[in-house]
Amino acid sequence: MLDVFSAPASGDTRYPDVRANYVLIDGSRRAEAERWLYACFDTPDYRNLFDGTAWASVRQAAPLLLCVEPDHPGLEPLLAELKERECGYAMTSDAPLATLTSHLQRFIEVRHPLGHRVLLRIADPSVARVLLAPARDGGIADAWSDITGVMLPDALWDGWHIQQRPEASSGEASDPDRTVTIPHPLNERTLNQLMAVDQRATLVTLLRHLETYFPTRLENRPRADVVLGLRTLMNEALDSGYTSLQALTHWCSVFGYLGPPDTWARVAPEVHRIFRERVPQEGEARAREAAVLARELTRTTTPGRVDTWAYP
């Protein structure tokens, strides 16, 4: 079963040793993506996937499909930024640019199980993991088609998911002149995986908050321990009704000040009480109150790591 929170099979954090010849960039996450391409490549050969579609009016936020030589010096720094931001991924394909563009455009808009149409973030690496998964895990049967391999960056684990097209998924190439009139239907399994992708994106945001404002909390700790601790924090906070990103970020700050939640009953009973209580609406005010209390504890208690303080 696909777990979108799982780490790559390889722990390698370097640029993947795969000869990618296409890169899909998420224009909604990378500001001025087209200008960025011209900064990386003198004459980038790319297509804006919203051009020629009903979404052309918002083309500045569109996915961009770049065709690139595998040995081009601009490719490695490009992929490094994609990994840091999770704003795209690399692919291998034998199809020409027009054909691959047509194939990907088929997945811009999909049909929700309730019948309405929704936009799919096809340039999001975690969304790609879902689409390219086996059907039993929520994947879409012909998502691979012209794609022979993908290199999906993972900022949560600081690595890459390297996948090759299963033999059973290879089929006829897409028709570049094909017009999509009926969006792909999503089933409940796919929808549940995409909801997990949204939660994973929140977890990445919390990890970045911790890395930015509480770097010492990460020192000498295995990344797996940090990710597991943050995920536990997020899930328990959601269960208590802290559903907004702002509230979750406040609890991430508490994690930064005090350490994992399993220490709070001992080192900060009032913070622990707030964390365990059910809150109305999104709980931002209570979460902020807990963060302020945690900050004051670190200022007024004897020096040292809060999670090692001894209480009678």
From TrEMBL:
InterPro entries in alphabetical order: DUF4123 (IPR025391)
What is the superkingdom listed in this entry's lineage? Bacteria
- Give residue ranges for domain DUF4123: 22-133
Specify the protein name. DUF4123 domain-containing protein
- Give the classification, highest ranks: Bacteria, Pseudomonadati, Pseudomonadota, Gammaproteobacteria, Pseudomonadales
